[in-house]
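Sequence, please.
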């Protein structure tokens, strides 16, 4: 199966890079936390739109199993994910529907004087992602109650019967299984078959397409076609409303747990010649790129954290992105 460096690093981020945050309360309720939730004794009701800022701390190792100087990359790194969610609380249970709005991908600084690998999840790709559902539980209904979610799993470029646990389709036996038996089958609406690859954006290519610069071995590769999965569980506390908060209501602060990232590179695109002309990568070229396969794991040194804040009922991903600094100050 072709595992590549492309998408795992979309959410896993890059070595020798860092991301910053304005979330001053993120030290709360975390490993080695520096703040403690102070209940005001008030009851809360989680309902409506919430913006979620997740800061992911991971370890990136290229190639898997390497050690010491043999590693091209072996560093902790940071990335950021913005989600727009709908939350509906009934007693101590909650349902969550999450839409991915933004993925921040730091450049990947490889050893040996190579140019940093830059990956971008285009707006058109994010807009093509359907919302995913999960459930959560609370241990009370007053502030500082603990909140725990079941895994929130996002799959791109493939349709799985059980998204959290089913294997991503690859090409171990040659050509990968195509949803509906055709390369043009869209991922949305969901195909009738599962364990298969589909077209996420409706652009006529398999899987989901990322923009790339400085791909290892091929400076003229500008697209990766992938299927991928990321899954997270949220564990935190319901905090009282903060002074000066943009939208009234309780917040949820905590850690991202059980981070899971896996993916396959299905193909790529090169721009070759003069003037440059796009063409699909050959199987051997895809294999070369896929040889830079990162092992992605949750950092043992730093917590991955999240903050969820209430937003107005009609809020969109564009609103979340435009107002991120104010919402998560």
């Amino acid at each position: 199966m072709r595992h590549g460096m492309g998408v795992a690093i979309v959410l896993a981020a890059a070595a020798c890079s860092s991301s910053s945050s304005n979330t001053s309360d993120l030290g709360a309720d975390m490993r080695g936390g520096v703040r403690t939730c102070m209940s005001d004794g008030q009851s809360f009701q989680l309902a409506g739109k919430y913006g979620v800022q997740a800061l992911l701390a991971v370890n990136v190792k290229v190639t898997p199993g390497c050690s010491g100087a043999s590693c091209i990359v072996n560093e902790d790194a940071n990335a950021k994910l913005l989600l727009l969610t709908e939350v509906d609380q009934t007693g101590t249970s909650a349902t969550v529907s999450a839409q991915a709005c933004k993925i921040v991908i730091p450049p990947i600084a490889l050893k040996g004087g190579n140019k940093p690998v830059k990956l971008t999840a285009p707006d058109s790709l994010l807009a093509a992602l359907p919302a995913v559902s999960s459930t959560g539980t609370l241990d009370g209904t007053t502030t500082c109650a603990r909140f725990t979610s079941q895994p929130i799993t996002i799959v791109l470029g493939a349709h799985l019967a059980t998204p959290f646990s089913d294997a991503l389709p690859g090409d171990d036996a040659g050509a990968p299984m195509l949803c509906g038996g055709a390369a043009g089958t869209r991922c949305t609406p969901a195909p009738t078959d599962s364990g298969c690859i589909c077209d996420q954006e409706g652009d006529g290519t398999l899987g989901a397409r990322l923009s790339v610069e400085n791909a290892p071995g091929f400076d003229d590769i500008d697209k990766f076609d992938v299927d991928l999965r990321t899954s997270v569980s949220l564990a935190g506390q319901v905090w009282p409303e903060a002074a000066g908060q943009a939208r009234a209501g309780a917040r949820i602060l905590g850690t991202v747990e059980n981070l899971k990232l896996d993916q396959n590179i299905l193909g790529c695109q090169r721009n070759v010649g003069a003037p440059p002309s796009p063409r699909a990568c050959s199987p051997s070229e895809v294999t070369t790129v896929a040889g830079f396969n990162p092992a992605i794991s949750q950092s043992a040194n730093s917590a991955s954290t999240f903050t969820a804040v209430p937003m107005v009922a009609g809020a969109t991903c564009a609103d979340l992105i435009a107002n991120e600094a104010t919402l998560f100050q």
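Helices lie at 8-12, 123-127, 283-290, 317-322, 324-327.
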